[in-house]
Design brief:
The chain is mostly helical. The chain folds into two domains: about 90 residues; about 190 residues, Intergrase catalytic core (hpI Integrase, Chain A, Orthogonal Bundle), CATH 1.10.443. A three-stranded antiparallel beta sheet has the order 1-2-3, with no helix packed on it.
Length: about 325
C-alpha cells in the first residue's frame, strides 16, 4: 500500500475534508481494518470498535484545528485522551485502539514512531468474578426451558459450556460435533468444548424444531443471519426479570469457570475450556471459592433432576447425526 499521507498539507480547522482528501481518509480506514483482520487476527467486534475509536479521535483532532490522527503528536493525543470518559476501562480502551492504529501506520511505513505509546495506562482493580449460586442457576435454567427450546438451548450452552456472547451467537450447526462443540473465540482461535448431557438434550430438542440450515441461533428476521447481540441481551434481561436473578450471559460464563474449577483442579484444562490467552485470567477463578470438590465433571448439574440420562446412548446417537 502506498502512503496516502506522504505530503500532508494543512486542513481547515474543523472543516470538512476536501474532495481529494476523502479518498485518502477512506484508504487509511480500509487499510487499518484489513491489517487488524489479516495481520493481527482481531475479532470482528474488536475491529469495529478500534476503527470507531480511531475515527472518533480523528474527527475530534480536526475539530480542534489539527490535521487529523495520522499526523497526531503525543501532546494532541493526550488532549483527546483527557476528553474520554474518566474511567479505567474507557481510557485504557481508547489508548489500546490508538496504539493499534499507529502500529498499523508503522507497518505501512508511513511514519516510524508511535505517539500513542506514552499515553498513560489507568490501573484497574482486580475484581473477582461473581458467579450465580446453584439455586439461582436452577431458576435460570428452569425459566429458560419454560420459554421454549431455542432459549433453553441458548442458556444451557452458556451455563454448561461457558461460551462468550459472540461465540454463542456465531455457532453453526456444523460446529456441533457429536458431544463436542467447536468454538471460534477471540482472535479466531479454535477450541473444542465437551457438551454436558443437560446441554446436549437442549441442543437436540432445538435442532428438531429449528428450520435454519447454517446458524444454530438465527436472526428472527432471517435464517441466513445469526441472532443479533441486542436480541440475546434482551432475552437475558427477560430471564433475569422472570427468574428474579441478576444474571447476564457473561455472568453464566463466570459461573461455568467457577464450577468447573470446583470439580477439576487442572487450571490449564479450565484455561483451554474458557479460551483464555493468559493463565492469569483463569487463575482469578481460583480465588472465588477455595473449596475443591472430589466430583467428576459429569456431575455438574446445578442440582437439577436429569431423568433423561437413562436414554443417554440414544441421545449421543442423535447428536452424532447433527451437522
Amino acid at each position: 500500500m502506498h502512503n496516502p499521507y506522504s505530503a500532508p498539507r494543512p486542513v481547515p480547522p474543523g472543516g470538512p475534508a476536501s474532495s481529494e482528501e476523502e479518498p485518502k481518509v477512506r484508504e487509511v480506514w480500509n487499510g487499518f481494518r484489513d491489517w487488524m483482520r489479516h495481520d493481527k487476527n482481531y475479532s470482528i467486534t474488536t475491529i469495529h470498535h478500534y476503527t470507531w475509536r480511531a475515527q472518533h479521535c480523528h474527527r475530534w483532532l480536526r475539530q480542534q484545528g489539527h490535521q487529523g490522527l495520522p499526523w497526531a503528536t503525543t501532546e494532541t493525543l493526550r488532549a483527546y485522551w483527557d476528553t474520554v470518559t474518566p474511567s479505567a476501562a474507557n481510557r485504557n480502551d481508547a489508548r489500546s485502539a490508538i496504539v493499534a492504529f499507529f502500529h498499523f501506520v508503522n507497518h505501512a511505513g508511513w511514519r516510524p514512531d508511535n505517539p500513542a505509546v506514552p499515553l498513560p495506562r489507568v490501573k484497574t482493580p482486580k475484581r473477582l468474578p461473581r458467579p450465580v449460586t446453584n439455586d439461582e442457576a436452577r431458576k435460570i435454567l428452569d425459566m429458560a426451558e419454560a420459554m421454549g427450546p431455542q432459549i433453553a438451548a441458548m442458556v444451557n450452552l452458556l451455563a454448561y459450556c461457558g461460551l462468550r456472547n459472540s461465540e454463542l451467537r456465531m455457532l453453526r450447526w456444523s460446529d456441533v460435533e457429536g458431544p463436542w462443540l467447536r468454538v471460534i473465540g477471540k482472535g479466531d482461535k479454535e477450541r473444542s468444548i465437551p457438551i454436558p448431557p443437560p446441554a446436549m438434550l437442549a441442543v437436540v430438542r432445538w435442532r428438531k424444531q429449528s428450520t435454519a440450515a447454517e446458524w444454530v441461533f438465527p436472526s428472527s428476521r432471517s435464517d441466513d443471519r445469526p441472532i443479533a447481540k441486542s436480541t440475546l441481551s434482551l432475552i437475558m434481561v427477560d430471564i433475569a426479570d422472570m427468574a428474579c436473578v441478576e444474571v447476564t450471559a457473561h455472568k453464566l460464563r463466570h459461573t461455568y469457570a467457577t464450577r468447573l474449577l470446583e470439580v477439576c483442579s487442572d487450571l490449564r484444562a479450565v484455561q483451554e475450556a474458557m479460551g483464555h490467552s493468559r493463565p492469569e485470567t483463569t487463575a482469578l477463578y481460583t480465588k472465588v471459592n477455595p473449596k475443591r470438590l472430589a466430583e467428576a465433571a459429569s456431575d455438574m448439574t446445578y442440582g437439577r433432576m436429569l431423568p433423561f440420562l437413562v436414554g443417554a446412548p440414544h441421545l449421543l446417537h442423535m447428536l452424532s447425526r447433527i451437522r
